[in-house]
């Protein structure tokens, strides 16, 4: 599971001119399920997103998580994170999960996030979305679900 986290002061996502999800300060998380991903990858990714210390403490050091600050999560599906640009000028998206599997894992992520965190908003899977954000910092971090082998050590 691939994600791109952006620390934001505010963010919202619109579909057909209507706001479908918005947050104040927190994290905008663009997510993409890849072929072979399962709920295990979603669980590990969400655990890392919630605990990642990328918000400033009183001393200005990145030492607080989105949970620590009580910030929001805005989860937006974005299959283009799986783009392979090594074979020419047109990206290939063959590593992205099939649409049905991507939707299932995205819906699972949103449901799990809502049970684990008090403020969760989301985009609309496979919709033409417009994402608006004020990046705070800017802080933008690519993140993949940790491999199982890393967790075992």
CATH architecture: 3-Layer(bba) Sandwich
CATH superfamily: D-tyrosyl-tRNA(Tyr) deacylase
The top level CATH class name: Alpha Beta
**What is the fold named in CATH at topology level?**
D-tyrosyl-trna(Tyr) Deacylase, Chain: A
| Percent helix range | 25-40%
Largest sheet: 6 strands, mixed
Rg from C-alpha positions?
A: 15 Å
Gross morphology: globular
pLDDT averaged residue by residue = 95
Number of helices: 4
Number of domains: 1
Strand content: 35-45%
Chain oligomer state: single chain
Name the poorly predicted regions: none
Order of helices and strands: EEEHEEHEHEEH
What does this structure look like?
The chain has 153 residues and is α/β, with parallel strands linked by helices. The protein has one domain: D-tyrosyl-trna(Tyr) Deacylase, Chain: A (3-Layer(bba) Sandwich). It is 26% helix and 37% strand. The protein contains four helices and eight strands, in the order βββαββαβαββα. Strands 1, 2, 3, 6, 7 and 8 form a six-stranded mixed β-sheet that branches. It has a two-stranded antiparallel ribbon with strand order 4-5. A hairpin with a 2-residue loop joins strand 1 and strand 2. Helix 1 crosses helix 3. The mean pLDDT is 95.
Short description:
With 153 residues, the chain is α/β, with parallel strands linked by helices. The chain contains 4 helices and 8 strands; from the N terminus they run E-E-E-H-E-E-H-E-H-E-E-H. The protein has a single domain, classed as 3-Layer(bba) Sandwich (D-tyrosyl-trna(Tyr) Deacylase, Chain: A), CATH 3.50.80.
